[in-house]
Amino acid sequence: MTEQPILVTGGTGKSGSRVVSQLRQRGISVRVGSRSGTPPFDWTDRATWDRALDGVEKVYLVPLDGELLTRPFVDRCVALGVRRLVLLSGRGVDVPGYLPDDSPAGRTHVDGDDAVRSSSLEWTVLRPGWFAQNFSEGFFRDAVLTGELRLPAGEGAASFVDAEDIAAVAVESLTGEGHTRRVYELSGPRALTLTEATATIAAATGRPLRYVPVSREDFVAELLEQGWPKADAEDYADAISPIPRDLDSYISPGVREALGREPRDFTDFVKAATEAGAWQP
């Protein structure tokens, strides 16, 4: 094991947990940045930041959506001797109108992306599109289990990227050479409509599943009926809005640029998730 651990913030999340796993498979010491970690790390408690960064030279940084905390955290990284930082940013940071100017998540990524790229660190920025794992671990899983995915995405398509590929690019950027001051745009190898994506899952699992396009207004109203706060419901609708505007269908070369191979196809993700029991009730 290396003497100096790599700090992985969001170390129990979709990409962070995979970064932790892949680093450990290489025999690299990892410090899991989470409230339950040792030492604990809490984005909302700045008193935990310095202890989590103590003795660390490399960081995988997963920002806290809706908060402008990346910039002050980067400042602490610089002050405490961190040398290399890999940021999980987001698709559309450099696309005018991708998200509304007042989008909390959008502000997090725009400000954080700028903070990292303007720092003195050896930095790499990852800008992935929609995670394929949103169907198996995230936003869409509950809907998949009910058999009906209702979203204001129209007939738009997205080039869903596997979180395993995101993690692999992050690990290579943390441990390899030639990735400093690189921005990797990450996507899967092809774009799928929500109709195609749900049909792929239904075929693999044998579970009935269909995508139902709804208007933004109806979508927000349905979330409010489920008890969502209005601001959160509108933020969710905003996050979906690039898909019907055809801003998420393009194919990005980042996986190939960083790893020298093609990204994993959505069908392969679905097969693996099904075999792992991701959609068992």
Automatic annotation (TrEMBL):
<dbReference type="InterPro" id="IPR036291">
    <property type="entry name" value="NAD(P)-bd_dom_sf"/>
</dbReference>
<dbReference type="InterPro" id="IPR016040">
    <property type="entry name" value="NAD(P)-bd_dom"/>
</dbReference>
<feature type="domain" description="NAD(P)-binding">
    <location>
        <begin position="42"/>
        <end position="175"/>
    </location>
</feature>
<dbReference type="InterPro" id="IPR051604">
    <property type="entry name" value="Ergot_Alk_Oxidoreductase"/>
</dbReference>
<protein>
    <submittedName>
        <fullName>NmrA family protein</fullName>
    </submittedName>
</protein>
<dbReference type="Pfam" id="PF13460">
    <property type="entry name" value="NAD_binding_10"/>
</dbReference>
